[in-house]
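Hey everyone, long-time lurker, first post.

I ran two proteins through the pipeline my lab uses and got sequence/structure pairs for each. Pasting them in order. The first:
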Amino acid sequence: MRRSIIYLVLLVGFSVLAIFMPAVPASINTEGINSGDVAWMLAATALVLLMTPGLAYFYGGMINTKNIISTMLQSFIAMGVISVLWIVVGFSLSFGDSIGGFIGNPSTYFMFQNVLDAPVFGTIPLVLFAFFQLKFAIITPALITGTFAERIRFKSYIIFLVLFSLFIYAPLAHMTWHPEGFFFKLGVLDFAGGTVVHMSAGFAALAAAIYLRNKSERKEAIAPANIPFVLLGTGLLWFGWFGFNAGSALGAGPLAASAFATTNTASAAAGLCWVLFDSVRGKKPSALGFCIGAVVGLVAITPAAGFVTIPSSLFIGTMAALISNVVVHWKSKTSLEDTLDVFPCHGVGGAVGMVMTALLANTAVNGANTTGNGLFFGEFELFKVQMLAMAIAITFITIGSFVILKITDLISPLTISSEEKQVGSDYSQHGEILQPYELKKEIAA
């Protein structure tokens, strides 16, 4: 109750502060704007936002029936929390004036000052770029929720959400995509977020899986509550991913078309490979398997989408599915508490994508932004830079996430009690029930 009052006061305080900020600039710069690029980027921004509800369905269908609402809400609440945080300080920390190449100056765009009247960002307004990037910031922590689905307190999740966004996501985005960023100046290639989005979510998930594991508790396989939800979520993710990757070209041109094509090809290849590999291992081809594989392919092509050829994307999707499938099988034999395999799919998938970029990038695809050809084309420098950046990023994300988990746990206990787990997070955390009759029978028993 007391924390809720504090949160409400903070939100009201920021809202009041916004009244006194200069909301309308003296003049809005329109010189150099390309209406076609603006139209495409508005559509791409909306597509990326659609991915978060898609993720909610994807995760919600995999979970126990009594935790569907809670799991889906964790994705939706990120849309609210991160949207507000981004306006206040998140965009500044990610893309503000560089401080040492590691973080942006929080005052550069504080409360979105200096955004509307900023110079045109390429051929689009800076405010459009800011909101396109916001959608990346929203889905990244939402991806992590699959790790602690069914186990985390809602209030604790909100605290983790804020801390992760400020101290893990924002520095990674700044280092990778800001012109003065540490990784950017090294020559690291990450077209749409292999490091910033997927590795950050995946290795934070690994940290959470280690932090929350309970060796004395027997791991039980989860029977998916609603596989049609998973299929719907996969479709929304696949559809939205075209905005994610093709939108990262920041314009309506050949590069966007190329990224669009590599995205679809890698996902298709990975989905098929996952199903076929399961069949080779004696399993039946499943809807769940194809959906997971397709998403792994989307993850792996993300850093490479605008740097590799379309045939290369076929190879990337196939290899990512094979490797992630093996890691999922390995993880199932450990004590790691990664409920929905976020680390094998996003952490490993993102890392595979970064390696594949180092191997297969070709300046013929995107010569203006590619810092060199990949190892398979006879150059070693890009491979060296990508591997160095990946090692630094993994270390930073994993250690930083452990620290944030510990701080969150000290402020508000992370995990729900065994009694709350028995009745489900939907009821214990939110007072909402998907199937009241079944819950009443379980409580009575």
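...and the second, right after it:
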Amino acid sequence: MAENKTQPGNADPVAFLDGVPNERRRQDGLAVLDMMKSITKLDPVMWGPSMIGFGQYHYKYASGREGDALAVGFSPRSSALALYGLTIAPGSEDLLARLGKHRKGAACLYINSLSDVDTEVLGELIRLGHAHMTTGNFTTG
């Protein structure tokens, strides 16, 4: 069975963020890094070349495919800040309704700027998402 392409590595997340060319995305990334570190009480880990994660979880599909993924994290993409692990926990929909300007993908939350959202609500989404992803049951059909 093929190994996941995105694996935790040893690159320095702060050095990665320092290299982000878009000033707003870089500053927002550093702020989210501090938020996630404070809330999860974990050090950031680079997953692949562009994702910063906090904690991890193990998943297993009915097909037999299984692996590990970051519990919560983010990537400062050129078009938006992509946040992972924040949209599937019970209660997240109510928080998303209060978050502010955002888009939701299949497994991601996209925000253009931290100034577009309520950072207290974002913090609660991070807390809820991390708790869910690290204690949930991820055997799926």
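Reply from user beta_strand_b:
Welcome! Quick read of the second one: Helices lie at 13-18, 23-40, 92-99, 119-135. Residues 23-140 form a domain with the Aspartate Aminotransferase, domain 1 fold (CATH 3.90.1150).
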